[in-house]
Amino acid sequence: xxxxxxxxxxxxxxxxxxxxxxxxxxxxxxxxxxxxxxxxxxxxxxxxxxxxxxxxxxxxxxxxxxxxxxxxxxxxxxxxxxxxxxxxxxxxxxxxxxxxxxxxxxxxxxxxxxxxxxxxxxxxxxxxxxxxxxxxxxxxxxxxxxxxxxxxxxxxxxxxxxxxxxxxxxxxxxxxxxxxxxxxxxxxxxxxxxxxxxxxxxxxxxxxxxxxxxxxxxxxxxxxxxxxxxxxxxxxxxxxxxxxxxxxxxxxxxxxxxxxxxxxxxxxxxxx
Length: 272
What we know:
Layout lengths: L2 H22 L1 H4 L21 E3 L7 H7 L6 E4 L5 H6 L2 H8 L3 E6 L7 E5 H8 L13 E4 L8 H5 L13 E8 L13 E7 L1 E7 L13 H7 L11 E6 L3 E4 L4 E6 L3 E8 L1
Parallel strand pairs: 1-2
Antiparallel strand pairs: 2-10, 3-4, 3-5, 5-6, 6-12, 7-10, 7-12, 8-9, 8-11
């Protein structure tokens, strides 16, 4: 009897059962952050950004510096294990522990000038809704950044940041969650990493010398559905959709717009 054959098919059977249960009970897979499929207007797209799976290929700090740190974005898989952090980010855990804490919402337009302070549970239960095409970015508020690190110290202490750095720079965390279809239109700032904790996030990127055409007060969803398909092939962005546990690195001053495919929890490490 070929025990290797039996083991391989047994593993496939267990994985099939796992996927079946995820479909039946989506909250098990998504930390309780459910998404109403009927209100999802965005879908994942192609990926033309380099992807490095650290569990398969060696990816040292030197390789990161030589090939990406100052040159171009990269998707990194398998570099950290944030199982404990992810557990704290499940919907029930986050609301039980921090539901009465005040969070600062930002308008989802390029400049994010408008701010609004609310309790986390109010944001999740009343404000955090899937993006619609009749709502502009400056009319949409979502939680990303402006975190009170002292209030959320227990959460941030469990996060394992990407193990790559730029010389003489230090990381600052920016945490958030948002509904399907939300995101921020094109903008730029210093370099950093973005990691998805739950859900999926689609990233669009252009180098510093190629500013994309966009309305700063319209949403990324507007841009995707109204402008993206009309772009000349030479004007198409670098892009990729990242999922749970995956990280994107964006170099200094690269234009980038983001789009949450489903209800998403995410954290960035801004370097400066």
